[in-house]
Every structure is written in C-alpha cells, then in structure tokens.
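Notes from the pairing session

We agreed to fold both candidates in a single pass and log them together. This is the raw record for the first candidate, unedited. Please don't reformat it; downstream parsing expects exactly this layout.

Candidate A
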Amino acid sequence: MLKYDVVDSKKVRVIIDSDTACEADDPFAIAYALMSPKLIVRAIVAEHFAQPGSMEKSREAALRVTRAMESDVPVLHGEEGPGETGEPSEGVQFIIREARTPDIHPLFLLCMGALTNIARALAEAPDIADKVTIVTIGGHPYDMQEIPWKEFNFGNDPDAANQVLQSEAPVWQIPSNVYGSIRVGLAELQEQVMPYGAIGQYLFDQMVAYNATPAASWTQGESWALGDSPSVAAVLHPACGRTEWQTVCHVNEDTSYSPLPVARKILVYRDMDSRYLLGDFYAKLHLLWPV
C-alpha cells in the first residue's frame, strides 16, 4: 500500500485517450495513471489506430488492464476512425460533459494515440477549449531537418492533429525523440514488473507476446520504449522534463511540419527524466501489489 495521500488541492482529473491495442506500451501508461493518487481518472476512451475495428480492439485491451487492476474506471467507445460525422461517440460525449462540469480539479486529457476523439470533442463543443489541458504523445521534434519516418500517432489522423494544435486549448506536446527515450529491457520488466500482482503479470506477458509478432519487426529484440508513460509523468510532475514554447506548425500528411502564417505557441517537452518515471512506476507497482 501507499502510506501517503495527495493534498486534494493538488489532485487533477484525467481522461485517458488510448489506442491500447496498437502496441504494448499503452497498458503500462494506463496502469501508471491508475496507480497514482494525484490523478482522479474519470474514464478511459478507446482510440482507433487507422485499421478497421481498431477502436473496439483498443477498448477490449483497456478493459483487460482495468480488470487486472480490479478498477471500476469506465472504458468508453471512441470514434471509429477519422472524419466521423454521425452521432458523437460515448467517449467524445463524456469528454464534453466532464469538461463542462464545474470542479476545483483541473482536467487533463492524456492522449496516447491519434487525436481523433479530442478533435471531435473540440469541434462539437468549442467552449471546452479553455476547460482542458491536452497532453499529446505525438509528432516529431520541430528542429528535425528531415523526418526519419511517418510519426505514428499524428500520422493516423493528421487533420485531427492540426485541429487540436491550432485550437485554443492548452497543449503539452511530447514528441518522438522524448517518448522514445523511456527505454527498458525485457529482463528489467521480468524483474521489476512480472512478479507484482495480476497486473504485473499481464503487462509483462502482453509485452513479450507483442514483441514476438511481425508487428514488432521494428524493435531491437529484447528492449522497448514505454513511450506513452511520459504523458502520465508530465501531469504528475510537470518539471520532470525540460520544456520550451514552440510556435505551432501545420502537420503534413507525412507528419513533417510546415510554418503557418499566424500561429499560437504550445508547450513542447525537450526531454524527460526516465529515472523519475520508471522509478515511480516500479515503486507504486511493488507497493500496491507486494510479492
């Protein structure tokens, strides 16, 4: 158990928006958020990853995490894919309702995938822009001369990325060079994660299983980056990385950037303290599910 609590005035509300079934790191970030007493997690909204049925797969994967943790946080359907024009999904409607609900606890949207659900919420309810802070895992660093690859999260819905970045909502962006820096070995996860409760076993098993599939052909074999967890760490301790104010650019289809004639500034992380992040995650897991 954790022998401390967080002063109520320092707690924040959180809605997690995650393409949980896409890769093996999202479940770690969800578990990290659910273990952290500073975060009042209102819901998890399933995000698509640009494949038919992927939103539903993400919802099912998020439910496996909450069940392993015996958590009653609701897991909601998001948009089926980019550019939906019908009735907004239950997840989008929940984001709007929660943002409009008066509360002393600020609301953060932790975005661990495409920004489709968030863009739809802002389009349906522009009045919520000043009621949320959007923390997005996505995009490349702005000083990169030539992009090495199409960045996955922004690339799964560039239009949504542009809607969010160019909106009036505060945005904290964690780009690829930062989210890719939270490196772990599978042996480390076997030692630090696997023995600790049903959730530890699940997190390790799904990581090893995914690592053995053709979808993980880009990885190095026995290592990974817990790339979605920086969104959690940034809200727990905003100074856990160096930041700078960056003028928003247009996100192109290949996820390169083009300057805009008039643009606002957003907060962009330059780096992240991986010792703090991993140490905090492991300690909470060990204390809440002791061997």
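Candidate B (folded immediately after A)
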Amino acid sequence: MELNGREYHCPVELVIELISGKWKLLILRELMSGTKRFSQLQRAIPGITQKMLTKQLRELERAGLVNRKVYPEVPPRVEYSLTELGRSLEEIFTAMHRWGERYVKELGSTL
C-alpha cells in the first residue's frame, strides 16, 4: 500500500510510523482524557522539551490525529485535542495497556 509517496508493506507498518517515538504515544495518551493546552501537556509529560513537544504535536497534526485550535486572545491561547481519527486509537491504547499489565504480571519478576 502507498501513502504520500511511501510504500508500506502492511497497515501495521503505517500505524507504527504514525505513532512511534518516545513522545507521541504519551502525547496521545494525555489527549485521550480531553483537550489540553501546551503547558498542560508539557507538565503531564516529564522530560519532554518545549521544542520536542512542538515538533511531535506538529507531526501528529499533519497525520490528522491531533487538532490545534488557536484563540484570538492576548496572550494567545492554543488548545490541542484528538481528531475523530485520533480518538479511534483509543481501543489500541486500551489493548496496549492491558497487554502491558499482563506482561508485568507474567514476566515482571523475571526481568
């Protein structure tokens, strides 16, 4: 399958590319609970720099997973939320959460 001039061998490869990286999953997880401002996201994700958060949000926005809304106020207010497509990742996150719990329960003491 092809998207934006890139060939993918299967849909899973595409999904992994869209949400991979150290920060994207954490950003998406935070937005699952609702709309957030930039500073709220930065506080909720320890260790992420302003530059990296901006970069990752832009990539998620370009991918159609995150919506950015700018309010014409002083100082400017910007809010981020999941698009309908982004929200559809919730069942994947739930499955990953359950799998992670199971992994720790079954193998956690042997690691």
